[in-house]
Design a protein that fits this description.
Layout lengths: L5 H24 L3 H20 L8
Length: 60
């Protein structure tokens, strides 16, 4: 039976867990540039629409 290096085993396991967590975050938070641009354009359009429909303060 071949001896097992426990330090190497621990580090390999930690790397695998870190990679799994990174992959989960990429799915959760990652967006393509096209998606980011589309959201930015939509927000700009909505901001212009809202500004155009604000009521002017009435003079007293």
């Amino acid at each position: 039976m071949k001896p097992v290096n426990l330090n190497q085993f621990r580090k390999t396991k930690a790397r695998a867990e870190k990679k799994a967590r990174a992959d989960a975050n990429a799915v959760k938070f990652g967006r393509s540039k096209a998606e980011k641009d589309a959201v930015r354009k939509e927000q700009t359009t909505l901001a212009i629409y809202i500004d155009a429909h604000k009521r002017a303060p009435e003079d007293e």
